[in-house]
Amino acid sequence: MRDTHAPRAVAFAGGVLDRADPVRADPAALAALAAHGRLLLLDGLEPLLGEGGALCSAPVGPDAGELIFLGRDEAGIGWFIAAPDAASASTAPPNPALWEAIASMAPADLALYGTARSLAGWHARHRFCARCGAPTRLAKGGWQRSCASEACAADHFPRTDPVVIMSVAHEGRLLLGRQPRFPPHRYSALAGFIEPGEAVEEAVAREIWEEAGLRVADVRYVASQPWPFPSSLMLACHAEALDDAITIDTTELEDARWFTRAEVAEAMAARARGADGQAFSAPPRHAVAWHLLAHWLEQGAG
């Protein structure tokens, strides 16, 4: 069930490019767009930023190499990125400086960068066929890779990994946890990948049980967020715990605890000032977890 009062403006969403699916399979149309197109400039998978935190771009030149088509803007200009090299295949956590850069980027730029990063990383990691091991080649403007072996000829497509992230409430308090990799004092919503054969609601219930030992009910969808680290779709939900007895899975979490509405409100107000709260440090605004906490405060119940 969707909560119609959910916040909707989340980082990496809201892209303005026309993805122009029919163009992807038309080499002549792609070439025409590239002739007058723009090349989004990346340093590996990191964005290159100019004045005011704007993304840097340049005309598509003859030495741009193999191109990945991102879409057309409102003026009909095609936007591209250069196909990445194998060095961009890492799925290690981003450079911490990237989070500062993200804070300065306009929403449309952030959405464009998120798409570009996800696609670039996928191409770097999928240079060989998962079916036969032969090299793959870029196809359909970068929205497909095809096995170069005629005996195999398998087609591969950019993947998106679904992840549930959830706020959990019980009698006016909110459950938040922290992982060892978090900054000091940071607590956030619990999260985990959806496994094969699971519905969203089932994944929410399983992850909360595994990480915090709590049974839940009344799981509700709140919002979604494309998350290009490396290529996930965060499905934000809210659930009500049936009791408050936490049993922490220490292989997943360093700590988990209940926070009162006043503590969450104070931490969110501190985050808006760029500071840490007294009880905990709230997640940054570019994370959908921030929206989950804000949504819970706005609802005023649970």
Tell me what you see in this structure:
This protein is of the alpha+beta class and 302 residues long. It folds into three domains: 1-125, no CATH class; 127-158, no CATH class; 161-299, Alpha-Beta Complex (Nucleoside Triphosphate Pyrophosphohydrolase), CATH 3.90.79. It has helices spanning 21-24, 27-35, 96-104, 107-125, 200-212, 261-272, 288-299; strands spanning 38-40, 42-43, 46-47, 57-59, 67-72, 78-82, 136-139, 144-147, 155-156, 161-170, 173-178, 190-193, 216-227, 232-241, 255-260. Strands 10, 11, 12, 13, 14 and 15 form a six-stranded mixed β-sheet that branches. Helix 6 (261-272) crosses helix 7. The longest helix has 19 residues, at 107-125. The protein is globular, with a radius of gyration of 21 Å. It starts with 20 loop residues before the first helix and ends with a helix. Mean pLDDT is 94; it is low at 1-7.
Keywords:
alpha+beta, Nucleoside Triphosphate Pyrophosphohydrolase, 7 helices, disordered N terminus
Explain the layout of strands and helices.
Layout: H1 21-24, H2 27-35, E1 38-40, E2 42-43, E3 46-47, E4 57-59, E5 67-72, E6 78-82, H3 96-104, H4 107-125, E7 136-139, E8 144-147, E9 155-156, E10 161-170, E11 173-178, E12 190-193, H5 200-212, E13 216-227, E14 232-241, E15 255-260, H6 261-272, H7 288-299
Parallel strand pairs: 1-6, 10-14
Antiparallel strand pairs: 1-4, 2-3, 5-6, 7-8, 8-9, 10-11, 10-12, 11-15, 13-14
Helix pairs in contact: 6-7
